[in-house]
Design a protein that fits this description.
The chain has 444 residues and is an alpha/beta fold. It has 15 helices and 18 strands. The longest helix has 17 residues.
Amino acid sequence: MSKKYFGTDGIRGKVGGSLITAEFALRLGYAAGKILGAAMPNKTIVIGKDTRVSGYMLESALEAGLSSAGVNIILFGPMPTPAVAWLTKTLHASAGIVISASHNPYYDNGIKFFSQTGQKLNDEQELAIEALLDQPMQMVESAQLGKAKRLNDVAGRYIEFCKRAANRQLLAGKKIVLDCANGASYHIAPQVFEELGADITVIGNQPDGFNINQDCGSTEVLVLSEKVIETKADLGIALDGDGDRVVMVDHAGNEINGDQLIFMVAKHLYDLNQLGGGVVGTLMSNQGMEAGLKQMGIDFVRADVGDRYVHQELRKRNWILGGESSGHILNLNLAGTGDGIISALMVLEVIMETGKNLKDLAAEMELYPQVMINVKTDEPKQLAQNKQLLEQAQLVDDNLGDEGRVLIRPSGTEPKLRVMVEAKNQNKAAEFAKKLADFAESLT
């Protein structure tokens, strides 16, 4: 059975549109409470959120729905997604909820769920919640209504958790520019890096409900690059709106993406005989990473796009390291989910132990040029399966041979079709990507 509401990363949409409304969040809270909370011994679900203005409304609606199902609620306020995942497990909660649309603009929002172990829900749990969404709500008796409380020391707990993942003197003498994307990490990430000894300049730490991810964060590093050069910093770190992704900038202002960061960590762990297997990427992972890893004798496999699929593949193979080009990186020895702060600390550990700067480490992997064009469409899944489009894509793929590839896939979070062409030659990649995107647009 296919899922009506849940995508690869929870439920997302434009707030006030056909999906994410206060009424929907109320019903979702009730359904989640019945499926995830009511049957558990402590009947408690935690809620965190990012800094979007709509988070206040959705938080209240979810709280009401959960309470009506007889579930207690612990409110965290603004907290990174990985912090909520960790705290769900640490506090022995029945489940965790994050209100966030990650790297999307402020007018979008979404709702993510974590099981009591801090992992994404399985398909059976999501389908059960969806089935109950279509049923009438049956509020528990007044004496059984859930209670809500706010836990105020959760930020400090998570800061200490992050610091434990690093050498206590890791950042002594390092000059870093930190971009918090005006998101959920704005009050946490600066403390982590300061307390580990860094001399930091912080940007993107003044959220107002509307500026999350706006010209900042992991999806837009221009301001960060300029600040790194201006302050003569060693590097820059950019998180996304909910703090589960990271990209970095070297001292010359060059962006270093998730594939490059994964490669340098994999190489370092392999040299130390600590990698414990291979690396999991996704369909979007750069061919340069795959080629470089295989040249060193490191196994590499691709999962579907989405951190839940990377995580599933890692668990299946008993490996520890994987992630996405966007900067969603998993090291299961350090955290159970992708964590931007911990991923940055992991890379900084490589810099410290090798004595190399970020630019030199990135240069050890050949990055194939990738050109991706988003085609707006109300039916991205159907367009991705269009026979004519697939035939055109195959022609391009045949033309590129071993020196490139084509990937056409629907976005899991937006009404867009993603057309990606990767080639050793930048001009070829751009030419073929435009050709395929134009053809796809003609079909809409």
